[in-house]
Amino acid sequence: MEYEAVIGLEVHAELSTKSKIFCSCTTEFGGQPNTHCCPVCIGMPGTLPALNRKAVEYTIKAGLATNCTISNFTKQDRKNYFYPDLPKGYQISQYDLPLCKNGYVEIETENGKKKIRINRIHLEEDAGKLVHSEYGHNSYVDYNRTGVPLIEIVSEPDISSAAEARAYLEKLKAILQFIGVSDCKMEEGSLRADVNVSIRPKGSNELWERTEMKNLNSFRAVYRAIEAEVARQIQVVKSGGTIQRETRRWDDAKGESYPMRSKENAQDYRYFPEPDLPPLIIKEELIQRLKNELPELPDARKQRYISEYGLPEYDAGVLTSSKELSDFFEEAARASENIKAVSNWVMGDMLRILNERNLEVSQVPFPPTYLAKLVALLDKGVINGPTAKKVFEEMFNTGKDPEAIVKEHGLEVLNDESLLLQVVEKVIQENPNSVADYKKGKKKAIGFLVGQAMKATKGKANPQLLNELLIKKLEG
Amino acid sequence: MAITKEVIEYIAMLARLQLDEDEENNMVSDISRIISYFDKLKELDTSNIDAMEFLSVDEDVFDKALRDDVIGKSYDRRELLHPEEEKDSEYFTVPRVVE
Amino acid sequence: MKLHEYTITQLHELISKKEVSVPELTRYMLDRIDRLDSNLECYITVTQKHAMERAESVQKMIDEGVLNSPLAGIPMAIKDNICTKGIPTTCASKMLGNFVPPYDAHVVKKLYDNGAVVLGKLNMDEFAMGSSTESSYFKKTKNPWDTQRVPGGSSGGSAAAVAAGEAIYALGSDTGGSIRQPASFCGCVGLKPTYGLVSRFGLVAYASSFDQIGPLTKTVTDCALVLNAIAGHDPMDLTSSRRQHPDYTKALINDVKGMKIGIPREFIADNVQKDVRDAVLNAAKVFSNLGAECEEISIPSMEYVVPTYYIIALAEASSNLARYDGVKFGYRAANPKDMLDFCMRSRSEGFGTEVKRRILLGTYVLSSGYYDAYYKKALKARALIIRQFNKIFEKYDIIIGPVAPTTAYKIGEKINDPVQMYMEDIFTVPVNIAGLPAISISCGFDSSFLPIGLQIIANRFDEPTLIRAAYTFEQNTDFHKAKPSLDE
User: Fold this and answer.
1) Quick one: closest CA in C to B33, which residue?
2) Catalytic hit among C21, C132, C136, C154
3) Which parts of A297-382 fold into alpha helices (H)?
4) Which among B71, B78, B82 is the top mutation candidate for probing chain A, defined by the most A β-carbons within 10 Å of its own β-carbon?
5) Distance CA A36, CA B46 (A)
6) Which CATH number fits domain A417-475: 1.10.1060.10, 1.10.10.410, 1.10.630.10, 1.10.357.10?
7) Model confidence band, residue A261 (pLDDT cutoffs 50, 70, 90)
8) How much is the ipTM here?
9) β A246-251/C451-458 pair status
C-alpha cells in the first residue's frame, strides 16, 4: 500500500515589541543572565500582568496578513503546568477565544499553488531558558526571555510533504517580517516550530494517530524531521505496528527522534480565564486602522515584480522571499534603468557572496544604490563584465562606491584604438607561432592572442574592440 | 464520582504535592465531604446563563487600560535571585533537569 | 485617654497642634506592642528601626509643611500578605518565611506618600486561607475581648491589633470575608471595597477575582480617611477601575432619611446565633427610627453561594500558588533527588494542611472531566447571583445583615471541620462573588460580651452610600465606644 503524509505545524514567533508582554523589561536578545527581569516577569508574589497594547496589535496584524478573521471579543487564559523555566507555574495564553481564526497562506508546490489553512493565531508569553552544566547536579535558569510576547500560529493538517512544510514556514516567515511584527530569527529562537505528523493510505480521508515533534530550530530540521518521521511511521505500520500518540524529541545531530518521557507529563493544563486581565473588545475601527497600516505583502510584491518589472515568476519569488532582500532589491531597482540586470546581480553574485561569507542582507556594507551604479557602469561600457565582478567583490570588502573603486584602481575599459593597436602589434610580434597557426587556418589561435593582449592591458581592454583590431591586423 | 485514593494521588501529582499516608487519608475524607457539599450546586438551574456573563465588558480596555510599549528599568539581579543563591550567582539554581 | 485609644482624626489634630510628636507617638505604640504582643500575638514582624526612622522623617516633612495628609505620622500596620519593600512578607507561611520583597505594593506606596508610619506586619491565616487566623504557621493571634477565642480571619492580626490599640489602623485583605469577619469578631470597623476600587498590585494573590485590600479602623470616619488614601486607578492592575473616586469624607453625613434598606430573610434564618440575629434586627430598628425604610427581601440563591465561592476561589488559588516551587523565592527543600522531588517537597514542606487542601480542591475542580461540573457551573451560578443583586439594587440602597452567624469562638473549636468552617462564610462571600462593597460595624454584644458586627452592603462603587449609612448608625449608637479590657 502507498501512504501519504498529513502534516500540521504549530509555529511560535516572538513579537518584536520593545518591551515584554506584561512588564516593561526589554525584549532585547542576549544580555547577562537574569538582567532583563523584574518582579513581574519572574512571577514574584503580589505581581500582576499589564498587557502590552502593541503585542495585541501585532497579533492582529499577523492575523490580517494571513487572511484570518479577527475576534471582536477575546480574553487571556491560564495554562497550568510546572516547569522551572515557567516562573508563575502557568503560562498566560489564549484558549477558546484566540485573537485570530480561520485564515490561510498560499504556497508554491510542485503541483502549483496550494492554500494552507490556519486554524488560529493566539497571543501568549514566552518561557525562560534552562542552562545545563556539562557535569554536576544542577541546571540553571535564566528568565531574560520570560515574558517576551509570542504568537502561536496553528495550521490545519493541510501539508503533505516536508517540502510543503518548508515552503509554508518560509512564507510565514516572509509575511511576519514584511509586516514587521517579528524578526523570525530561528538561530535566536524567535521562530520555532512544532510539527504534527500522521500518515494514511494514499487518497483516503482517514485520520490516523499522530505524533508531535518538538525542538525544531531550523527549516532544515523541520524538513529532515518530517522526512524521518513519515518514514518511521510507514515502517511501523508496514511491520504490523500501530502509531502511538506521543510527543517526540528531534535530535538534529543524530538525525532521529525519540519519545519524550511522559511520566510527569500527564497533560491536564486546567485552562481557565485569566482573572488578572479583563477581556478585550476589539473594535472594528482598530481592525481597520491596523489593516491600513499593513505594508505590501510578499505575494502582492511578487505580482508587482512580474507585472511592473517584467521579472520571471521564479526570480520574483526569490526576491520576495525575505523582506530585507526584497527591500534591498527594490531600492537598487528604483535607482536603476536596468532592473533585470539588478535582479540578476542580487540573485546571482550577491546571494552567492552572502552565502560564502555567511552574512545577512542587513550586513551588506554598501547601500543598494551602489548596485544600481555598478550596473550603470557596466551598461555604459565604462567597465567590462569581469571587472564588474571584481568591483562588486571590492564593494563587499570596503563598502566603497563602485565609481570610486573604478577610479582609484583605474579600471575603466580601454577604448583608445591607437593605444590598443600598439598592444596588438606587440602581441603579434611576440607570438609568431600563434600567428603562424592562425594563418594556417587554426582560427582558435585568435583566442590565445586576445588573452595575451588582455593581459598586457591588465584586463582593462574592451575585448570586442581588441578582437576586431587583431583580426584586421592578421588578415590585413 | 467518589474521591478515592487514586483520585487524590492524581490530583496531588498535578498540583505537585506529596502527601504522606496520614495526610492522604485525611485528604480523601475531607475532600470527599467538601466535594459532596459542592455537589449541591448541581441542583441550581443555570440553563439560560452564559458562563462568561460575569465578565465585565469594558469597551475601552484596549485603548485605555493596556500598557504602552515602552521599556522601563529592569531590576538589579541581586534583588531578584533566591535568598539561598550564592552572592555572585547569575542564575536560579535547580537540580539538573533531564529532558 | 491614652494615645493608643485615639482615632486617626484625633491624633491628626494632636500632631498638628504639636501636642505630640510623631516619634513620641511611634515610640509609645512600639512600647505598647512590646508589652502586649507576646500575649496577643498580632504581629509577625515589628519594624522598630524602620518605624522610628520613618517617624523622624515624617515629622520633619510635617514641620516643613510639605505633608499635611490626615494620615501623616499615624502609626499603622499591614497584613502580612501585602508586599513591603525590604520588610519580610510571609503570608504567615513557612513557604514565604524567607521572602523580602524588592518592591512595595501600590497601597503601601500610597500610604507612604500620605506619611504613614508602618509599625510592622500582621498575622493572618496562611495565604489568607481561613477565618480564624489559626492556620498561621507562626503564631495564633488571640481575640482582645477574650484571649481564649479567635480574632476571626484571615485578617485576624489586623483586627486584633486595631481592637487592642497595637495599631491605630491596619490594612487587611478580603477574599470571602477576611476583613469583615475579624472586624466583627474584634469590634472594629472593616471595609471591603468594591472589586477594582483598590489596586491589588503587591497583594499576594489568593483568589484574584475576589481579593480586595481594605482598611480596619476604629471608626467609620477613619475608614473613609484611609479609603481616600488607598483607592484609585493603578496602571499595574488592569482590573483596577479607571473611574475617578469621590472624597469619601464627604459621605460622612448623619442622615439616612428615605434610604431604602433590604434585609434578606436568608440572613436572619435559624442558622444565625440568636444574639446576633437580635442585634441585626435591632440595627434595622435603629435605621427605621432614623427615617430609613427597612423591608425584608430575598436572595433566592443564598444556599448556593458558598459552593460557588469556594469552587472559583480555590480554582484560582490552585493556580496562583503554583509559583511556589522553590526555584525563585520561598522555601527550598534540602537535598533534592531531582527536579520533581525538589518541586514536590518544597511545596509539601512549605505549605500547611489547609493550603494543601485548598490547592487540591482547586486542582480537582479544574481538572479535565470535572471542569464543566464544578468550575464552569460555578461561573454560571456567579452570573446568576450577580443578577439577583443587580435586581435588589434597582430598588434598595443598601442591604443589611450579620457578618457571621456567630460571635468569636474558642481557639481550636472549629479548626478540624473544614466544611463547617467554609459554611460560616455564608454571609460574607456573596459580596465577593458580586464584587460589591461591604462594611462591618459594631452593632451589639452577645451574652459573653463579645462584639457583634453589622454588615452593610451597597451597590458597586457606591461606597458613599455605604459610608453614610454606617456613619449614621455609629453616630446614633454607642457600641463602637466599648473597648476590650486588657491586662496591662
Assistant:
1) C419
2) C154
3) 298-307, 313-319, 323-334, 339-345, 351-357, 368-379
4) B71
5) 47
6) 1.10.10.410
7) low
8) 0.97
9) unpaired
